[in-house]
Structure to design on (414 residues):
C-alpha cells in the first residue's frame, strides 16, 4: 500500500491574500507530491513500514533500517509534515477560543502575546530550511524548531529537545513563502496568524493530552 | 592589554549588471540575491562580530560561544556569496567558457572530462537536503580536486579550498525555476566563470 498525496481541505486560492495561490499549488502538487513519490519508492519493498500511517512512521523512526533512514527522514518527514500542515491551515481562521489549549498557552508563556512572540522569534531564527512548532511534551507546551523535514514525532534521538506532539507548525523552507514574500520571512510569519487553524490545534491538544 | 580594531565587512559590488546572467539566472533573482540576501549576511555578521568583540573584551566566554553559530552562519553566508559572484560571469565575459591550464588537466585526470565533472557536480547538488552549496574544492593534503557539499552557509574551510561554488538554496532559483531545481543546475553552467576557478586553483 503506497502513500498518497492528501487533497487540500480547501481551494488553492482559499488562503489568499495571506498565502498566495501559486505557492499553495506548487507547494502541494510539486513539493509535497515529490515527498510522497520518493517515500513510496524507498519503502516499496518494506510492507511493514509502508502500511503505517505516515505520522506513525515518524514515531517508529528508530525501527527504520539504517540504509533507509535518510530517505525516511527527508521524504517520510516531508510527507508527514506537509500532511499535517494543510490541516493546520484554514480559510476560516478565528482567534484561539477559550479552553484548555488557551489556558495551557497562557500558563506556559505568561500570555498569548508572549507565545506569539516566542513562535515568531523561533520561526525567524531557523538557519536554512526547517519548521517552527508548538509542541506538547510531558504535559507542557513548548515552541521548538526542527531542521529540514525533521518532525517532532521522530523522537529525542533524532530531534533532541524538539521532540513532542505537534499542535501547530509553520514551514519556513523558502519554497513556502518566496514567490510572495521574497526574502522577507517575518512578513510571511505574521501572515500565518491569519490562516492558522486553531480548531484543529484544539483537537491536537486534546489527542496529545490523552 | 591590546584593543583590536575590527573592520566591518561590506557587500562587494558585482562585476556585471543584475540582468547580465540571463537567461540562466534572472535579473530579478540576482538583484534580490545580492542586495537583500547577501546584504543581510553582511549586516548580521557585522552585528555578531561586534557582539563577539564586546564579549571578548569582557572575557565573557559563555557569550562568545553562544555567538559562534551566528558568526558561522552569517560569516559563511558572506564568504560563500562573495565567492559565488566571482565564479559567475556573463557569456560575453567568459561565462560558460571551458577551463584551461592546470585545472583543466586535473579535471580530466580526476573526472575524465568536463562533462563528467558537471554531471557529478549536479548529482551532488541534487542530493542536498534542505539548504546548502556544492563546491569544486582543492584538497590541500593531496593537491587533487573533488566535489563536496556543505549544509546551510557552512563555508569551505580547513583541509579544502573552494574553487567553484553553486548556491542550492531555494532563494537562488525559486522565482525563475520554482521547484525545478535540476533545470537551474543545468542552466547555470552557461554562466560559470572557470577563469576564477583556475585562479583559485593556482593560489590554493
Amino acid at each position: 500500500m503506497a502513500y498518497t498525496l492528501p487533497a487540500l481541505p480547501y481551494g488553492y486560492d482559499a488562503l489568499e491574500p495571506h498565502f498566495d495561490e501559486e505557492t499553495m499549488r506548487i507547494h502541494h502538487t510539486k513539493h509535497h507530491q515529490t515527498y510522497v513519490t520518493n517515500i513510496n519508492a524507498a519503502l516499496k519493498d518494506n510492507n511493514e513500514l509502508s502500511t503505517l500511517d505516515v505520522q506513525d512512521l515518524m514515531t517508529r523512526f528508530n525501527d527504520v533500517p539504517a540504509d533507509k533512514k535518510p530517505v525516511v527522514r527527508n521524504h517520510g518527514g516531508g510527507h508527514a509534515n506537509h500532511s499535517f500542515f494543510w490541516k493546520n491551515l484554514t480559510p476560516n481562521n478565528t482567534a484561539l477560543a477559550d479552553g484548555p489549549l488557551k489556558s495551557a498557552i497562557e500558563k506556559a508563556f505568561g500570555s498569548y502575546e508572549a507565545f506569539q512572540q516566542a513562535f515568531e522569534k523561533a520561526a525567524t531564527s531557523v538557519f536554512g530550511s526547517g519548521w517552527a512548532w508548538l509542541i506538547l511534551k510531558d504535559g507542557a507546551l513548548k515552541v521548538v524548531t526542527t531542521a529540514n523535514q525533521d518532525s517532532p514525532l521522530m523522537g529525542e534521538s533524532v530531534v533532541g529537545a524538539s521532540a513532542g506532539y505537534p499542535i501547530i507548525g509553520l514551514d519556513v523552507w523558502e519554497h513556502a513563502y518566496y514567490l510572495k514574500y521574497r526574502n522577507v520571512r517575518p512578513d510571511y510569519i505574521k501572515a500565518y496568524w491569519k490562516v492558522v487553524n486553531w480548531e484543529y490545534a484544539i483537537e491536537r491538544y486534546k489527542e496529545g493530552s490523552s | 592589554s591590546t584593543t583590536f580594531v575590527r573592520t566591518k565587512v561590506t557587500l562587494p559590488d558585482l562585476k556585471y549588471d543584475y540582468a547580465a546572467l540571463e537567461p540562466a539566472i534572472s535579473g530579478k533573482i540576482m538583484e534580490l540575491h545580492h542586495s537583500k540576501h547577501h546584504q543581510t549576511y553582511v549586516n548580521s555578521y557585522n552585528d555578531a562580530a561586534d557582539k563577539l568583540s564586546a564579549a571578548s573584551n569582557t572575557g565573557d566566554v559563555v557569550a562568545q560561544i553562544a555567538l559562534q553559530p551566528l558568526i558561522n552562519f552569517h560569516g559563511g553566508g558572506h564568504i560563500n556569496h562573495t565567492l559565488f559572484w566571482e565564479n559567475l560571469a556573463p557569456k560575453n565575459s567568459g561565462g560558460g567558457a571551458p577551463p584551461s591550464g592546470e585545472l583543466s588537466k586535473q579535471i580530466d585526470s580526476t573526472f575524465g572530462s568536463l562533462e563528467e565533472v558537471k554531471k557529478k557536480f549536479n548529482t551532488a547538488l541534487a542530493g542536498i537536503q534542505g539548504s546548502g552549496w556544492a563546491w569544486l574544492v582543492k584538497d590541500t593534503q593531496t593537491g587533487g580536486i573533488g566535489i563536496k557539499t556543505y549544509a546551510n552557509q557552512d563555508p569551505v574551510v580547513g583541509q579544502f579550498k573552494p574553487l567553484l561554488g553553486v548556491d542550492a538554496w531555494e532563494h537562488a532559483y525559486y522565482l525563475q525555476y520554482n521547484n525545478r531545481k535540476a533545470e537551474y543546475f543545468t542552466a547555470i553552467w552557461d554562466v560559470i566563470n572557470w577563469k576564477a576557478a583556475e585562479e583559485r586553483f593556482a593560489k590554493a
Observations:
- Chain B has a mean pLDDT of 96.
